[in-house]
Specification:
The protein is of the alpha+beta class. It has one domain. It contains two helices and five strands, in the order E-E-E-E-H-E-H. Strand 3 and strand 4 form a beta hairpin. The protein is globular and about 50 Å long. The C terminus is likely disordered.
């Protein structure tokens, strides 16, 4: 039986592979719920700005559009480079971050684990 060899991570926005650690960006949205409590949602792994497919020919960006997200529901885009999630300290950061709730657009399956389309 032949196993598939992993050559990177799948971008949650464009679906293309992120093959270099330095090209990855982990991001999420921070806002407030109706009670004024900080709410985190939309955790995903995407291409770092300027590294996604088609960046040489158009201003393609896989990251959240900060202005659009703020206008939609006053969310603020937050994120860290994929490099920050590597090694022992990065593993702990990934465990903590993966406990964040995702939004209702199919990025969370209700178990604390990333769903198949989240890319993480």
């Amino acid at each position: 039986m032949r196993m598939k060899v992993s050559v990177g991570w799948r971008c949650s926005a464009c679906g293309e592979l992120i093959t270099r650690i330095e090209d990855g960006w982990v991001e999420w949205l921070a806002g407030e719920d109706v009670g004024g409590v900080t709410a985190l949602k939309g955790l995903r792994l995407v291409h770092r700005l300027g590294t996604g497919p088609g960046t040489k020919f158009k201003s393609y960006a896989c990251q959240y559009d900060s202005l659009r997200e703020f206008r939609t529901d006053r969310s603020i885009v937050e994120g860290l480079s994929l490099e920050r999630f590597m090694g022992p300290d990065g593993l702990m950061l990934a465990v903590i971050t993966n406990r964040m709730p995702r939004n209702a657009r199919g990025r969370h399956n209700g178990t604390g684990q990333a769903s198949a389309d989240s890319g993480i």
